[in-house]
Design a protein that fits this description.
- By secondary structure, the chain is of the alpha/beta class.
- The protein has three domains: 157 residues, no CATH class; 78 residues, OB fold (Dihydrolipoamide Acetyltransferase, E2P) (Beta Barrel); 212 residues, P-loop containing nucleotide triphosphate hydrolases (Rossmann fold, 3-Layer(aba) Sandwich).
- Helix content is 42%, strand content 16%.
- The protein has 18 helices and 16 strands.
- The strands form two sheets. Strands 8, 9, 10, 11, 12, 13, 14, 15 and 16 form a nine-stranded mixed β-sheet that branches. Strands 1, 2, 3, 4, 5, 6 and 7 form a seven-stranded antiparallel β-sheet that branches.
- The radius of gyration is 26 Å and the shape is elongated.
- The N and C termini lie far apart (72 Å).
């Protein structure tokens, strides 16, 4: 593991130094001053504490990159992301301070596979720190102080934990969990006891996609943990992780209007046939199916999903948020296993988090040159900013992949490239197709169906309006 330079450490915040010290296993680091803590971190890594800052800079010109790697090691403490799908959990966009506050929540669930592999790490770490904090508040030097002095002397002699260079390197295939974290399967596709837990923070930072081959050093499981944890990610698909991470951010990639039409092959379904020819969909489209209650939005979305699920080169995922409990079984019966399924009683925040996780996975697929489609039923109960962020992620990357979002909602949010409006009166009376052509439309449809096709769509819409 590369040694973080002294200048990089001194320029970091005290909170970052505390995180690094915690991962390195420094005892009593919270009582050290910032400068002393930086020296202790360098000493633990086997660096030269007497070297001047300029020498450190020369030895490590990219200090910020080293800090990022250390942050990856801190993120591997597992617990914060292993329970991200709890309904009461807030959005991760609140920053690191709230993430640390969640780590101290004694009521979090550690029952599932990810929690068993990760959540207990923070619980055990907190159990170690709480007594020392209470003793400091009372002013006594309890057993923690006596325990620290021998460990310092052992480090000074260079035995035991001082030799941290012997790290076990694990290589395997990524399998992502619904909460955003994942596992490194060392013998894919079957799980094994040697699999390695990967935190959601590492998944996001390195933009990992299910199926990526990853390698990196591993630390053994801590108390109450079932699996070892990945300290950092060194390679992704044979390339250095730094090279992959330094690529252009997804939001900065050049994009263009959808020009590759998505075929639905719906000859026997009048509603889908009307959607395919009068409101064409393309790779990279932002599609919203709108209409009043019982207009058939969910049914139309499910039929589209069935048609897309069998197509090659398309990675299709379904997110159910705020749906009727019976509808979850309908999706499964149609051969579509949702990546998240939250019923009517679920909290709005939990629904928003489920949508954002699915969209984030689709973004990573598109950034790698693949084609992803995320179908959401529905956006009705989530906050408007969350819905707009999800729709805004859809795009066709120039000379690259695409992310298509198809969602059901009561009404358009603005910015859609395709609006499919369904008529509840037509649907309820069985008059199909139940497409409200006057309220439907596709932006730049000529790119998908050609000029003659666009003229035919315009003529059909004009006839519908005149009628």
């Amino acid at each position: 593991m590369s040694v973080i330079s002294r200048s990089a450490l001194e320029s970091s915040s005290l909170a970052d130094l505390h995180d690094i010290a915690s991962e390195l296993g420094l005892d009593g680091y919270r009582r050290l001053r910032k400068s002393d803590l930086a020296l202790a971190i360098i000493e633990r890594q086997g660096g030269d504490v007497d070297a001047p800052a300029d020498a450190d800079d020369a030895a490590d010109a990219n200090g910020a990159a080293a800090i990022d790697k250390a942050d990856d090691a801190v993120a591997a403490e597992q617990g914060d992301d292993a329970v991200a799908d709890k309904p009461a959990r807030r959005s991760r966009r609140g920053g690191r301070g709230r993430s640390r506050a969640r780590d101290r929540d004694p009521d979090r669930d550690t029952g599932d596979e990810a929690g068993a592999g990760g959540g207990a790490a923070d619980a055990s770490a907190d159990a170690d720190e709480r007594p020392s904090r209470s003793r400091r508040s009372r002013g006594d030097a309890g057993p923690a102080d006596t325990d620290e002095r021998p460990s310092r002397s052992r480090r000074g002699r260079g035995d035991e934990n001082g030799a941290r260079g012997e790290e076990r390197i694990a290589t395997g295939t990524i399998e992502l969990l619904p909460n955003g974290s994942g596992f490194l399967r060392v013998a894919p596709p079957e799980p094994s006891d040697d699999d390695v837990y990967i935190s959601a923070a590492q998944v996001r930072r390195c933009e990992l996609v299910a199926g990526d081959e990853v390698s990196g050093p591993v630390r053994p499981p801590r108390r109450s943990e079932r699996f070892p944890s990945l300290i950092r990610i060194d390679t992704i698909n044979g390339r250095a992780a730094d090279e992959v991470a330094e690529g252009t951010k997804y939001d900065d990639l050049p994009c263009t209007y959808a020009s590759e039409r998505i075929a639905l092959d719906a000859e026997e379904d009048p509603t889908l046939k009307a959607i395919e020819w009068l409101t064409p969909l393309g790779r990279g489209s932002r599609v919203v199916i709108v209409g009043a209650a019982r207009a058939g939005k969910t049914e139309a979305l499910r039929r589209i999903a069935v048609k897309l699920n069998g197509q090659e080169e398309i990675e299709c995922s379904v997110v159910l948020t705020g749906v009727r409990p019976e509808e979850i079984g309908d999706w499964t019966a149609a051969g579509l296993e949702p990546v998240a399924a939250l019923g009517l009683g679920s909290a709005s925040d939990a629904q928003g988090q489920a949508i954002e996780r699915a969209v984030e996975t689709g973004r990573r697929v598109a950034a790698r040159g693949g084609h992803a489609v995320v179908l959401i039923d529905s956006l009705e109960q989530v906050a408007v900013p969350v819905a707009r962020r999800a729709l805004a992620a859809a795009r066709k990357i120039v000379d690259g992949g695409s992310l298509t979002i198809i969602a059901a909602a009561c009404e358009p949010f603005g910015g859609e490239t395709t609006v499919i409006a369904l008529d509840a009166e037509l649907a309820s009376s069985g008059r199909l197709p139940a497409l409200d052509l006057a309220a439907s439309g596709t932006v730049r449809s000529e790119l998908l169906v050609g000029d003659k096709g666009a003229e035919a769509i315009a003529a059909a819409r004009a006839a519908a309006i005149a009628a």
